[in-house]
Amino acid sequence: MNDDRVGHEELPKGIPGGPGIAGERPRDLGGVGSAADVTRDDYLQGALRLWQPAQGLRANVDTVLLGAFARARGGDRVLDLGCASGAVALHLAWRFPRMAALGVDIQEHLVALAKRNARENGFEERVSFVVGDLRHPGSVCAPESFDVVVTNPPYGDVTLSRPSPSLQAAVARHDLCCSLAQMARAAAFALRSGGHLYAVFRAGRIAELLAALRHCRLEPKRLVPVYPKTGKDASVILVGAVKGARPGACLEAPVFIQGEEGGFTPLLLRAYTREGLSCR
Prior knowledge:
By secondary structure, the protein is an alpha/beta fold. The strands form 2 sheets. Strands 3, 4, 5, 6, 7, 8, 9, 10 and 11 form a 9-stranded mixed beta sheet that branches. Strands 1-2 form a two-stranded antiparallel sheet. Strand 8 and strand 9 form a beta hairpin. It is globular, with a radius of gyration of 17 Å.
């Protein structure tokens, strides 16, 4: 989960489960962070409650859209690459009661929050989190051991923009620890033949992502552009790919965050339900 804000930054105020609902600052975090640097927030209209950093790497609307876009079947094993505090993996566990998930992140303090989120939301038997380096996927999982991979890679290219002086922010926003090519290799390593990858990524760099996926035999099949509102450029694109599939992608109808009169669109609000976004 990245924190490079594009177009629609945080979960828009007024959407159920967004920052319009007050979070709490705890006194006792059980050894995870401190009351000054984490909050516990409603997520998905209060269906989940998430501990997450008070600043920086927080769940945003891109996170929700990825969790609503991805699909899993009963018995599927899902791998969340770059899981942060676990929002996407837990979103999918809430939507699909018979799947199991593993989340991996290189930042130990985020994995600690994700583990607490799994436990306190009642998913620790089906969702687990580990510290791991995606550049060495063999240290994280066995080859071809997952049916689904989800990922929200850092949007920034370290060769084109200066990273934040904060190491935590720089890792989240720029591909310092894992390039797009390395992410694609990790996903291809983990996925079985015919397995599905779901990603959300900055629209301006979508050609780089698609090239990296195809190089690893992850064939893009679904592309869904996301626009802040009518008249604006797309900010991110949802991508669905299949390992070993034949070429041929569908550019699907877009998602608009806000309607012409300023309210949030029905399609966006559907992302906050178990139904999620439409599947083809």
